[in-house]
């Protein structure tokens, strides 16, 4: 017969999602990490969840004072009412005034006395949840690895029959991994928190569940941030676990010639990469699709890494696109993303929330180059972006990615493997003709079906976005310096407004 224990919440929704429900109750767990990684914050939130459930809880601290713990709680807007704090500065409450030391410090007390104090307080309170902070102090008191292991094992055996779920915190100070991995074998589960310092921007934090007996948790690293209210954990996305049925119909822009280029338009559940040099009209092209989607009553979101929102709206208005009322109605959401402050995991979680909670059906990432600065390793960028795009595809979301090419004319080289990222690729290029700098648009790839192989002129002015006839009288347009051999260039000129 297989015995299963009920799961208890850690008090953190993101971590519970990683654990697929929570921690098995009445077990011993190791919470390890470097200083500043968020261990104390997570430990306090774990106990406060027990207080909310009406359980007696105990926080044993060998290293921090009650004032320091109160300060941590206050920074998150928490009250520690209901949390029993036992610090070794007040251990005379346990031993009485007749004990030869009224104040015990971890570096002065014998390890055996320390363990006895803990056992006495546990027997007195009989908590359902307990946090022990930290094992590094016990390690220093033991001075001998064998003695230390025996004491930790004795603690485990002591807690075993008392119906208490225990978090042992270890800050890894003075710990030799090759000698001290026995902690992992003694504990029912191990959660590791990491704090990574990048060359620029805010520190990145991530967690990993290294082991959890009897639970099918989500493995790998999960980004998290410390915000007011606790740890915001962003579970790693697994696209295959998300799928809904949808009709893969074409999404039209409202510009007939543009829709013809893509055989009617990009299909739902596909990703379109719009690439070209700076100033060629990539963002403007996506705004045409966004405005058309909003007019149909759909909800759309732009994640803006590069351009200011005010500048974007001013430019849209100059070409006749009034997006303000869509923003006011909640159909269009424009979010300014600071790549130096947002981790890729947090960005993915924002997109998920936007799609699953808000119901967005069209997502624009402007631009991939800005997104790349949020990820220090390019290989991880490709993997995370591919997983995110697969997830959006499973849910029938139309995604537009804007990618910047190097140079104004010349090389088509980009920093990303286009065929790996996108289902469709739209290329915008500059070319010179009749003494003027003009733009050409073409479709390089369209996995969803047939598309035009013609190169058309693109013009963006006060009249909006226009796509001209195929440039059949030119050769070498994609080189930037085409040769004209026709009798009359069929090029788009600026049209005067009707008065």
Automatic annotation (TrEMBL):
Domain of life from the UniProt record: Bacteria
UniProt keyword terms in alphabetical order: Hydrolase, Kinase, Phosphoprotein, Repeat, Transferase
Entry's transmembrane regions: none
InterPro entries, per the entry: AAA+_ATPase, Circadian_clock_KaiC-rel, KaiC, KaiC-like_dom, KaiC_dom, P-loop_NTPase
Keyword Transferase: yes
EC number: 2.7.11.1
Record domain KaiC: where: 6-247, 249-481
CDD domains from the UniProt entry: KaiC-like_N (cd19488)
Pfam annotation, one family: ATPase
Gene Ontology molecular functions: ATP binding; hydrolase activity; protein serine/threonine kinase activity
Keyword Ribonucleoprotein on entry: no
Top enzyme category: transferase
Source organism of this protein record: Pseudomonas mangrovi
Name under which the protein is recorded: non-specific serine/threonine protein kinase
